[in-house]
Amino acid sequence: MGAYILRRLLLMIPTLVGIMLINFTLTQFVPGGPIEQIIARLEGEGDVFRNIAGGGDAGQQQQVGGDERYLGARGLPPEFIADLEKQFGFDKPAPQRFLEMMGNYLRFDFGESYFRSISVVDLVIEKMPVSITLGLWSTLLAYLISIPLGIRKAVRDGSKFDTWTSGAIIVAYAIPGFLFAVLLIVLFAGGSYWRIFPLRGLTSDNWEQLTMIGKITDYFWHITLPVVASTISSFATLTLLTKNSFLDEINKQYVLTAKAKGLTEGRVLYGHVFRNAMLIVIAGFPGLFLAVLFGGGLLIETIFSLDGLGRLGYEAAVARDYPVVFGTLYVFGLLGLFIGLLSDLMYVFVDPRIDFEKRAG
Description:
It is a single chain. Helix content is 71%, strand content 0%. The protein contains 16 helices and no strands. Helix 8 crosses helix 9 (212-250) and helix 14 runs antiparallel to helix 15 (322-350). Residues 45-66 have low confidence and may be disordered.
């Protein structure tokens, strides 16, 4: 198993480099880079020019004929444009910039945000707890509900219980998470009906003055609606996946043989079927966690005013804040690859008969 883990770890390097290279190449063709963003700001914020240009006087803003490569820059001096390019590193060829960026990223040096005057690492650390919290609780809730429900649906396949729960699951799957979030706010956060839960944030204003039990209660009070909204679609998918997996195992010959030997239904179900059926459910954990953490995080974080990684990535992409964009992409990619490896290790934990080293050989 050690050789397999080592191969997977080594494979992460070219995979991550490939992800970064594709995205870096795409950004070279996207209009409106950081220099264009600054030029656009200059039209309405004269102080921005002075701060970025390094204290140059206002006389530099007169119409002297700027670099025509940038739309709207004709009134800026070429020296100013060249200084901007040097500050942002755009005076170097793209291949050199990519190699330097990856060299820094290997040392986990992600640089500093173009527009926030804070390092990317500090930004990610600041926003990470919100997204991790939302992702972990949503995934945990989905598994706690979906696995028992899916097993019961498989055992009572074709019954009235299976029929009406399938209808409810289909409806839940069809409802977008952000729309369900709005519905929850309208119903339970003072929108039009009850004001049971808070509308925004993860903690109350008096968080520091609360006792330990009070802080825990306040935290769960705030996180309830965002977690429920994030869980709705993943819960539906996981329930049907669990049901179909168990149905497939229940109909196999070894189950009939076990029943013929006199084993109880519970012993057969949880002693034999559960181990085999749960493999495909465990395999879906990385995708489910990443989908909740990064996929639906943006809309949920925006609706409930949660300052997490999804919102950070979106704002950075809009502002063309490339250090933040590529820094978060690198972290997300690395996290996804490690979670994929963790999924394989969980395969072996659930069923020791699986041997990835023999399969690779």
